[in-house]
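Sharing in case it's useful to others searching the archive later.

Someone asked me privately for the predicted structure of Dehydratase, so I'm posting the question and my answer publicly. Question first, with the sequence:
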Amino acid sequence: MTSRIRYADVQVGTPIPEQTFVLKRVDLLRYCGGCSDFTATHWNERVAKAVGLPDVIAHGTLIIAEAVRIVSDWVGDPGAVVEYSVSRFAHPVVVPDDDVGAQLRVSGRVEQKLDAECVVARLSVHCGGREVVAGARAVVRLA
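And my answer, the predicted structure tokens:
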């Protein structure tokens, strides 16, 4: 699969379309099984509250994986993401036990053009009006 976004058509400041991703408790359980991380704060409300959290929280790795989807969707090729990093988690993503779940709002912009085919995209990840991931950055190879 090739990228649908052409390097020549992208400028510094070009926005990456915002997306909202919903995380529900069942998603956390599936992720626990997929990554073999059954830490109780990701599925057990009693344990989460006992350690001072407001409720069950999403895995940090799940949050950053969801966030980078806007980049792979934008270019049309997950393999075009050649580097991805996050500086830190700013706030936990609390996932309530309801039918609504937690809403991750992810947006981005091209921050820099590196060479004849790669750009740096800076991502913004929010939940409930709060920044939850700081310093999310992806290097993307364009067509």
